[in-house]
Write a structure and sequence with these properties.
Number of strands: 8
Number of helices: 5
CATH architecture of the largest domain: Roll
Distance between the termini: 37 Å
Structural class: alpha/beta
Length: about 170
């Protein structure tokens, strides 16, 4: 099911405001306020995100072809890069509807939209995407997440085997 545009934009706006507010609050604090803020804590970065997956074997092969470390458990497949990861919940996990499920109630594949920072050249990215069998479906310059969204980068867009959108951003 496709989410209404209003709902998607509302979630993005919420996340941008949350991250921006945390960053502004952290940078605006000084003296005693800074020490108090540090004791209370703040969101510093994502640890992981989780989405359901449909085609487990194709997803594992695809993310391994992107040179990401893949780990498997009975309920999920996790894909690791740096200190972050994406948990892909296996169909047997996300399809059972229990009141205690800790997931978005309407989450069904494809529901992910991920942006990765690519540290190499455009040519090296194209090579890796070709090896993974990923077709580039779009590209262009856009504002990324750095410096509160004020730094532009070149993006390439592809879809994984379940249809999730993957963006690879190259900052110059």
């Amino acid at each position: 099911m496709v989410q209404p545009t209003r709902q998607r934009h509302g979630r993005r706006k919420f996340l941008k405001q949350l991250v921006a507010g945390t960053t502004v609050a952290a940078s605006a604090s000084s003296g005693r306020e800074s020490a108090a803020h540090a004791q209370e804590g703040a969101i510093s970065r994502f640890d992981h995100v989780a989405v359901p997956m449909q085609d487990t074997e194709a997803m594992i092969a695809f993310y391994r072809a992107l040179d990401l470390h893949v780990m498997e458990t009975a309920g999920r497949v996790s894909v690791h890069f740096g200190d972050q990861k994406i948990n892909f919940h296996r169909p047997t996990s996300w399809q059972r509807a229990t009141p205690a499920s800790l997931r978005a109630p309407a989450a069904t594949p494809p529901c992910g939209d991920f942006c990765f920072v690519w540290s190499g050249s455009e040519e090296s990215l194209t090579s890796v995407l070709d090896r993974a069998g990923a077709e580039i479906i779009g590209s262009g310059m856009r504002d990324g997440g750095r410096a509160l969204g004020t730094v532009r980068g070149m993006s390439r867009y592809v879809r994984d085997p379940d249809g999730n959108l993957l963006e690879f951003m190259i900052y110059s």
